[in-house]
């Protein structure tokens, strides 16, 4: 009889990865502590050791996972803004199951730090109202991804499949979705230049 492999230690990262898989493949409403414990092959109560506030802490961690992006500053504030928006879009599209959390949870922790970093980068690159610009850019990205995920039929597919939805191509979305996103982003940047 082969020796049993020791169980993989439970960690915050493993919990979040398993929760993301459930949310992306079955939808956020199906993510329960019991289902998460089953996926991790532990009692649900073991999760509380890593997330003492339980489901609230888990929801915060999932929102933070898809909204705490970092990019290197570009040569201009426009280049930096585009890099932030593209990175944010990619992170949100990677995990459509937690898009609702990203839209509704107030920024805290690493997300709040990332927003401050983005605001500072844009201000240092010469943009006058960097806080207002960051709010507008985040709203644009969240809205664009919400429309894209809705049009993809992901919500219906999550009810029928056990595999996570993935963007049509690794580098981004469909050519039409990518072009629409870039067109809207360019228009927004032109508007921000005028203020």
From TrEMBL:
<dbReference type="Pfam" id="PF02909">
    <property type="entry name" value="TetR_C_1"/>
</dbReference>
<feature type="domain" description="HTH tetR-type">
    <location>
        <begin position="9"/>
        <end position="69"/>
    </location>
</feature>
<keyword id="KW-0678">Repressor</keyword>
<dbReference type="InterPro" id="IPR036271">
    <property type="entry name" value="Tet_transcr_reg_TetR-rel_C_sf"/>
</dbReference>
<dbReference type="InterPro" id="IPR009057">
    <property type="entry name" value="Homeodomain-like_sf"/>
</dbReference>
<keyword id="KW-0805">Transcription regulation</keyword>
<dbReference type="GO" id="GO:0046677">
    <property type="term" value="P:response to antibiotic"/>
</dbReference>
<dbReference type="GO" id="GO:0045892">
    <property type="term" value="P:negative regulation of DNA-templated transcription"/>
</dbReference>
<dbReference type="InterPro" id="IPR050109">
    <property type="entry name" value="HTH-type_TetR-like_transc_reg"/>
</dbReference>
<dbReference type="InterPro" id="IPR003012">
    <property type="entry name" value="Tet_transcr_reg_TetR"/>
</dbReference>
<dbReference type="GO" id="GO:0003700">
    <property type="term" value="F:DNA-binding transcription factor activity"/>
</dbReference>
<dbReference type="Pfam" id="PF00440">
    <property type="entry name" value="TetR_N"/>
</dbReference>
<keyword id="KW-0238">DNA-binding</keyword>
<feature type="DNA-binding region" description="H-T-H motif">
    <location>
        <begin position="32"/>
        <end position="51"/>
    </location>
</feature>
<dbReference type="GO" id="GO:0000976">
    <property type="term" value="F:transcription cis-regulatory region binding"/>
</dbReference>
<feature type="region of interest" description="Disordered">
    <location>
        <begin position="155"/>
        <end position="179"/>
    </location>
</feature>
<keyword id="KW-0804">Transcription</keyword>
<protein>
    <submittedName>
        <fullName>Transcriptional regulator, TetR family</fullName>
    </submittedName>
</protein>
<dbReference type="InterPro" id="IPR004111">
    <property type="entry name" value="Repressor_TetR_C"/>
</dbReference>
<dbReference type="InterPro" id="IPR001647">
    <property type="entry name" value="HTH_TetR"/>
</dbReference>
């Amino acid at each position: 009889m082969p020796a049993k492999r020791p169980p993989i230690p439970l960690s915050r990262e493993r919990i979040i990865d398993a929760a993301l898989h459930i949310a992306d493949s079955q939808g956020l409403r199906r993510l329960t502590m019991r289902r998460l414990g089953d996926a991790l092959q532990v009692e649900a109560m073991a999760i509380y050791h890593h997330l003492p506030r339980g489901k609230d802490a888990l929801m915060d961690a999932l929102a933070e996972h898809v909204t705490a992006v970092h990019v290197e500053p570009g040569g201009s504030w426009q280049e930096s803004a585009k890099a932030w928006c593209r990175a944010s879009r990619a992170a949100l599209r990677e995990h459509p199951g937690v898009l609702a959390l990203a839209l509704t949870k107030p920024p805290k922790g690493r997300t709040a730090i990332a927003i401050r970093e983005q605001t500072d980068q844009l201000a240092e690159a010469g943009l006058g109202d960097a806080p207002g610009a960051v709010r507008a850019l985040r709203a644009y990205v969240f809205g664009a991804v919400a429309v894209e995920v809705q049009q993809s039929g992901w919500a219906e597919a999550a009810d029928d499949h056990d595999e996570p939805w993935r963007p049509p191509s690794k580098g981004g979305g469909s050519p039409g979705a990518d072009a629409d996103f870039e067109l809207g982003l360019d228009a927004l940047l032109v508007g921000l230049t005028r203020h």
